[in-house]
Amino acid sequence: MPTASAILEEVNLESLLEDYFYAEARALAINRLETSATRGIIEIEGPPTNDENDIVLGYVISRLVLAATDNQALVNYVALSEARRAELHLSSETDEDLVDFVNNLGVVKVELDGSDFNLNFIDYVRAASKLREGDWKLSNRGVSNGIVTLDRKTLIRLMREVIRQHLEELPKAPEEIRNRFQGTIEDLKSEVSKTFTERIGGLNSVVDERQAEAMKELGRFDLSKAPPCFNLNLMDLQAGVNLAHPSRFFITTFLSSLNQDSEAVMRLFATAPDFKESFTRYQVEHISGKTSGTQYSSPKCDTLVSSGVCPGPNALCRQIRHPLSYYRVMAESEKSPKNRLKRILLAALNKEEYPSKLLEKNMDRMGDFDFTYKDSQRRKLSEALRVDSSSKVTVKINHFQGRAYSVEVPNEERKIWITKATVNLTDGNSDFDCLPITDWKIALPVEEAQHKSKKIDLIVKPLEIDLDDNETRKLFLILDIVDET
Description:
By secondary structure, the chain is of the alpha+beta class. About 50% of the residues lie in helices and about 15% in strands.
């Protein structure tokens, strides 16, 4: 605000960071940050306990320290705490002063209309873009001649959101600061870090502890098997983003369906800036069925797409219709070697009816097949096809196609569902067919290499397969992806 900016006119950055005169302001800055990171509140008393100038300067220093930490989760925690503090102060303003404050911020423009406040619907949509639930939707607000009318309480809550969004983005350093530090923000971060090295390390540790504690609660849950919709929303949650209700509902139902304890799920949300234990506990226990008696099912993929939870499908997503199916398919490598081999052979034989004799014949030929490998030599594909051991090859993917299908097991009322990828390899000289990939931890990076037309390092082994009574072929089995790093 203009009155606060005036306090900075005669202050230079070097004095602010080093001069004993500003020691109290530096202490207030750290207090703002530490209480935001640990408790989500900012407790700073005004005059006479703290000088008004020190409070303003402490706020400025806190922004500089945030820039130096380079930790977006911490930035988000502090942004919400500052916005809540502003909300508390705005609640005590007169209507006229509230209008002046809102208009001085320059994000939206409001006019006082009796005891209500009017603003252009475009300003409203921009300010409430992250508030997607219930009454915040424009369709539920009502628009008259392009104007949205809000009561005092709603306007103040909206301004909390405007302030939070504003403070989540650290501004570029002013020209004089860039000049003082040779024109780069990294120099500014370095200078601030010299003064607050120990405190910055402590703040980052608090954030790391909050995130680590939440993940520890999930126990045996395997993130590597989770679909993109879960992982990306979890990343946002861990980064201090306040997720919309559909995303929170999905995370809760998805984990509950995998038998995660409601307490562990509840603690996961502790990394959110707006975390309230009692409210979160009620929601999680209700959704998981602990208090409601009804466990809500995880939404299907089409629901996640329509509600904005899905970030976009990968190759496996396009073969399934439910995020829980994704998790189960990604567990292929956890099956026994015999079961894994049988499923690969079923995928290769591609019969509508269960090929019992043909399957048994191939299984006998393979014996006690082992998917592990060691000391694989680097070879060309043509050479790798002629040896019995595994080889390390550098190839391009000529063809990749995913498919999900089922095979009915004879004399049993069940089907075997297989999600496979057919693949063709080339090393520039010749093309070679592979046994279908049923392990999608391998299939996904293979598909990515094909999509980007880039080379990929694989561990392959040739296997001789009877495809029917009259055809025997030697095909590559892809055992693993090689990560050279």
